[in-house]
Amino acid sequence: MKRVIFIIPGFWGEPREKIYKDIAALYKQKGLKPVIVKIPWERKVMSDYADYFLKLVKKYEDSEINIFGWSFGAMISFIGASKLKVKTLFLCSVSPYWKEDMKFILKSWAKGVGKRRMEDFAKLSRIEIGKTVKAKKAVILVGTMERDRMIKASKDIYDKLNSDKNLIIIKGAGHNIARKKYFDEIKKQINRLL
What we know:
- By secondary structure, the protein is α/β, with parallel strands linked by helices.
- It has one domain (3-193): Alpha/Beta hydrolase fold, catalytic domain (Rossmann fold).
- It contains 8 helices and 6 strands, in the order E-H-E-H-E-H-E-H-H-H-E-H-E-H.
- The model has no long low-confidence stretch (mean pLDDT 96).
């Protein structure tokens, strides 16, 4: 059976970015076929991104499915894993834009992302989705220098997952997956997972 790893970038992220290519190389060394997902970000909402990803996965339905996501990509990964049979789920810095976070979101930020996105976020409960995720193994990474709501989202997801799971809080790491401290932890966890 072919083993595939879907790597989902953060908001406005592109497959051509070095960090995603570096992560793909780590998985390739472990014998997985990397697919860096090009999400059509413009004029779409989180549910659209998740649907797009799920349609892409159908092309690989005879393969072992593994998912890696960063920030918005971690949200997409998490939603996708609730509808797929997943071997490994790797979530990095899960964005805190769920139903549970709505009252904490700054009005200026909400205005910037738009009414449709905010309405869609309000329908997505990480608590409810977490109950339905089908992943054998899961890793969640978040840095101590990230926003409190991001750390809270990561902990909530960890608590709800019914998987062989690990939550790693990276001391001194902020919201930057390309920083050495963050990347080194990704590498360590990929080696542990596979």
